[in-house]
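All the exercises in this workshop are built on plain-text protein records. An example says more than a description, so a record of this kind follows:
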Amino acid sequence: MNYNSSTMEDLPDELILMIFSYINALELSLVMSKVCKKWNSLIHSRIIRIKCAEHYKKLHKGLQVIFVTNTDLSIQKSETLISYIIRLSPRLRELTINSDFPLDKNNFKSLSLLVHLHHLDVFAKKQVLNRDTHINPGINSLVVNETISYAFLASLRQNKMSSFHMYGRADYFIPREMDCFLTIHAAQLRDLTLRCSEMTDARFRVLAHCVNLMSLQLYTCPMLTKHGITPIVSLPALQRLHITGTVLLRSRGLLELIGRLPPLVNDLNLSGSQFDSSHCGALASRLPRLRALELWRCRVERAALLKLARRLPALTRLDTDVELKVPQIKELERHPALTKLRCRWKGVVTTSLSLTSSLQVYSGSFLRNSSEGPSAELFYFWTRDSPLTEHPQTSLPTQLLDNPCLGFKNIPCEQNDYMTPVDSD
């Protein structure tokens, strides 16, 4: 980005803060704080990343957002961390703590002293959330990182939930309780992430009530068929739609889903599906303004994928495990909008694109090992829109680097029917 620093410095604080309100806190801290000194000062007066115990000294009453995303023994334990936060930053609005510092029952209760807290992303020592897990009634954005047990969702009845996400170790919930939860919060829900391994077609019907959803991520949907897609495609405000692991959604059903996609969708993920060359035309026609596309463990061939990319002039990010040839990557450089590409390739590539290998290995602590592509694989919610730190490939065992279906995993996975084919063209 080319910014005129003096111009940025001259903007009034009120205008800058209004701009910041549309950007997630981690991006503000990592990216926007580098624009100029004034922005850096404004951002870090409100947002802090605690990386070690020394950073406790930076806590103050004006802080609104705290991230604890690094593992450092000097941070000591959760009780110490929570104690410092409550005492020194009582006006905190957002709290994110990684899995190395899980909270116990008393820690959750202590958070009730943070009366302004509205976003919570933490882990529990007992690795389960139930009716005894206290969640502040003012929290409207919740990341659930553990198994959801009996009556936990019912305990959130008083919260006006606008964002609800299942990440971390969260995989299961009681279906009838989730039905009630989504029905109660349908009007205000804007952003929803579910792990759907036990959801049948009938269970997806409740989504039809969530008419204001702008982002819907449904990962691991092995029981979804064409009879369950109507509630999903009837959400008029939807802009981000991820549906992965749809092994029972046959080619014709997938074609029907694509033909009925909400027209505002600009971020689409159909990994782990039967998406192939026959679906490309329908997708290009239905979503001509698509900006981000993720296709892993599918059946689309590279020639069809390239043609699809050409028919999507607004596409800025393409994420796939398809193997592209060097000339095809060079061809994508001429795309009017594309800036980010993840794929497989052989040989040396010099390109103006931000290019990442689909075989790149990442720390297992950041992955769920779901085998459904990058988005479904993420362990932490706060990495959803941020790049993961890569392990240098030179430090990896040869058998991992050579495994053709390693993909977005730190361990090999077995071949399956939804592994993308490498065609012979």
Remarks:
- The CA atoms of residues 369 and 377 lie 6 Å apart.
- The chain has a mean pLDDT of 88.
- The first strand starts at residue 47 and ends at 49.
- The longest helix spans residues 78-88.
